Amino acid sequence: MQKVHLVSLGCPKNRVDSEVMVGLLKEGEGYDLVPDPDDADVIIVNTCSFIQPATEESVDTVLEMAKFKEAGRCKKLVVTGCMVQRYGDSLEGELPEVDSFLGTGEYHRIRQVLDAREGSLPKSHVDVPMYIHDEMAPRVNSWSQSSAYLKISEGCNHRCAFCIIPQLRGRLRSRTIPSLVTEATQLASQGVKEINLISQDSTAYGKDLRDGTGLGELMRELAKIEGIEWIRLHYAYPHGLPDGLLDALANEPKVCRYLDIPLQHASGPMLQAMKRGVTRAGQERILERVRGAVPDIAIRTTFIVGFPGETDADFAELCDFVTAQRFDRVGVFTYFPEQGTPAAELEHQVPEDVKLERQRHLMELQAAISREKLNALVGQVIPVLIEGTAEESEHLLRGRTETQAPEVDGQVYITRAPDDVAVGQIRPFLIKQAGDHDLVGEIIG
């Protein structure tokens, strides 16, 4: 029995790939997962390479794990994921400590690589990404006993000027509805109450299947699963939102009134330079359509500040857009000139201090909007998913509302609860206080 330690970096999509690898290793005999690299015979690092800082973190983590191999207990170090896909077999010379490399479309080979005799297989396995796991993959949910991510598709057909994801993940390939329903049913049997649908471009889900498959039908089928209470959609490209999705958001009780729709900017010149294929007016029409169909929906979005050529006027228009739209959740990222993307070659790169100041200003603007909207909820009773003890104090419980997505949004702090409250329950929550992003209150009933 070999002991394996796995480090997963980056986004929830990468986490799902890691969970599939864990499942493949636990299936059958020969491997046991351990939480401490000190105890491992094999160490796997699933890397991120979305932007250069993520690549640097991945390299640092690989080198850190390599120290356990030098110490003698660890006999094999395997590196998988986006960094491998991006740099290919050139990593063999850069990271000689690593025994095997697997690209983003090869992670299902993990057991084959670990079982192989030394020298019997190539050191690097990198090809055009084609694989996406299905319901037969023995995935192990590692994140929460009551919540899980469900990867509905892989890859992206867009060519945004700042993004390298299509190079790392390949073209769109969607899973079938029966496959996703089967996996979600398996997760429900393990106690999962909340399903978070993820992909690189959720709006495009099903288009490659060319059989009418779409988000609305998927959500309605998932809602039939006994035990699943909340279904939330992430990463919806703004234009092309299908009517079936809006119908499910409006009329299916289990579908959270929440939409994660990355907009990236509002200025016309910036949207054109980013190759987003939409204007500010177009985005406003999209948001009006969404809110018209689902008046009580919570909208999360993300913006990039400091994109090449962004002027004070462009940034002022973005601030005006955020003020007018009053989003529920906003993430703001500073632009990074990522090698291999068209935007990295553009002139008029914005100084780093200007990027950081614009990020600070926009986040302060959104914090005031968020604080005002959350304060309006004080005194209301809403359902909350109980997640466990708060990190800040063992005397507080923590949870989330249906409009708070895991890891990226705020949470609720529970100061008082009945004795029968347990992790995984969805209970009525009386809101007594509100901050910029979080809520405080007590479980009632």
Characterise this structure.
There is one protein chain. The chain is α/β, with parallel strands linked by helices. It folds into three domains: 2-125, Methylthiotransferase, N-terminal domain (Rossmann fold, 3-Layer(aba) Sandwich), CATH 3.40.50.12160; 147-375, Alpha-Beta Horseshoe (pyruvate-formate lyase- activating enzyme), CATH 3.80.30.20; 381-443, Nucleic acid-binding proteins (OB fold (Dihydrolipoamide Acetyltransferase, E2P), Beta Barrel), CATH 2.40.50.140. Helix content is 32%, strand content 22%. The chain has 13 helices and 19 strands. It has helices at 12-26, 52-71, 82-87, 91-94, 110-115, 165-169, 177-189, 215-222, 243-251, 268-273, 280-293, 312-325, 352-375; strands spanning 2-8, 31-33, 42-47, 76-81, 100-102, 124-125, 147-151, 153-154, 173-174, 194-198, 230-233, 255-260, 298-305, 329-334, 381-389, 397-400, 412-416, 426-434, 439-443. The strands form four sheets. Strands 2-1-3-4-5-6 form a six-stranded parallel sheet, with helices on both faces. A six-stranded parallel sheet has the order 7-10-11-12-13-14. It has a five-stranded mixed barrel with strand order 15-16-17-19-18. The radius of gyration is 22 Å and the shape is globular. The mean pLDDT is 93.
Q: What does this entry show, briefly?
A:
This protein is an alpha/beta fold and 445 residues long.
Present the secondary structure layout:
Blueprint: E1 2-8, H1 12-26, E2 31-33, E3 42-47, H2 52-71, E4 76-81, H3 82-87, H4 91-94, E5 100-102, H5 110-115, E6 124-125, E7 147-151, E8 153-154, H6 165-169, E9 173-174, H7 177-189, E10 194-198, H8 215-222, E11 230-233, H9 243-251, E12 255-260, H10 268-273, H11 280-293, E13 298-305, H12 312-325, E14 329-334, H13 352-375, E15 381-389, E16 397-400, E17 412-416, E18 426-434, E19 439-443
Parallel strand pairs: 1-2, 1-3, 3-4, 4-5, 5-6, 7-10, 10-11, 11-12, 12-13, 13-14, 17-19
Antiparallel strand pairs: 8-9, 15-16, 15-18, 16-17, 18-19
Helix pairs in contact: 7-8, 8-9, 12-13
